[in-house]
Amino acid sequence: MTTGEPVVFSPAIEGAVRACGARITPELRAQSKALGIDLDETMVAYPVDTFLRVFLLLADALVPGDAATPPERLRAFGQQVTLAYAHPTIGAATFTM
User: pTM of the prediction?
Assistant: First the structure.
């Protein structure tokens, strides 16, 4: 990352991992790592484009494709992640502001 580059902080990744739980397969972990995010060893922040690629990967893999259009899958996955993000202290603090 370069200075001034827009970033997404690790609690967003942690929320996605918490929302997915055991549904994250070793294959998804490997694909995520290849895209730039190791789901087992998070960093402090990630470039926005890297986060979005992994978020889309997880949404496509974990929300049934036959039950929703791509925007609906993203919305459903985003709701799951938002609820999971609210559980840690930083997430709870963010939602009370």
Answer: 0.74
